[in-house]
Give the backbone structure.
Amino acid sequence: MAAPLSLTRFVLKNLQRRPLRTLLTLGGIGMAVGAFVGLVGFSRSFEHQWMQIYSSSGIDIAVIHGTFLNTSLDQSATDKLRKLPVVAAADPVIFNEMDLTPDVNALVYGWPAGAFQLDALQVLSGRRFRDGQAEVMLGDLLAQDLKKNPGDTLEIQGTSFTVTGIYHAASGLEADAVIMPLDQLQQLSSVQGKVSTIDVRLRPAPEGESWDQYMKRAQSEIEGAVPGLRAVPAAQRASDNQFVKLAQASAWGTSTLALLIGILGIANTMMMSVFERTSEIGTLRAMGWRRGKVLALIQLEAAALGIGGGVVGVALGWLVLRLLARLPQTATFVSASIQWQLVVEAMGIALLAGLAAGALPAWRAGSLSPVDALYRE
């Protein structure tokens, strides 16, 4: 006499009944999860690149006025900040995105020639720029793209600048950028005396005071010294800017739409499965299966589809990230590796998608009485 099928074997048997439909459903949820992994992975890599700018330069706090790209902060506030006991260094910054050629645009940073942020850069050839001079330094990635070397000229918005040096930076956002004297970028942007932010490096925290406590105290002292301005920790600054928010919103919006389509695919598969197995479900009920066990059977099948699609999706997302890491347009922003947190999130979302999609079919299956199910067949 054959051994009775366990719940797990029932699930596998039912999924194998219609292999093509099962594969198509796995493909649908896999594409949705793959979109999540690829797009969210890209946005987080982008945020990480911003964070590297601050961490590599030793920036602890960014003092800003308004939003990320707002260039209305009075440069004279820098002197007030430098006098504070908690401040080791403070330097003003402007950044903007500009067209360098008809095909190439890049971030352009404006720093004073003696800014502490420059110490984090490795000058590969040439020298640093000088204040008051029409000079620029190019990141090595951008210099390679533009085919520029020290001594060459670069025209930006109708003004010719001499390339004085090529540098390497920890962040791709700086390695693919232009750095010029602050006064020159202020003149180009017609914002003399104004800056985007003032980067602050704090002195070491006193003994007995935790870094978090020290950071909060420093923020309070800075905001008290320059009323109307905000002192934002570097980590928050990296994640709370328009570029990162736009990337995150696009990633989550597109992923959510794809996941909804994947959920509908699983729901359709499970509804068809319940409809085709009405007689079988009636027989199981007649054999003593309780409503809860039937519900569990259908939900397990839906969960299995979700998890299977999640595995497919993680693999697809990893391939997408590897592709983006090789494309010249995105290589500087994207890491080909996947963080384990993202994998856990993706598998969790896939499982929840399967359970959500199976809820209605499971309820319908559990609602069938043995007599009605057999009669309908």
Summary: The chain has a mean pLDDT of 83.
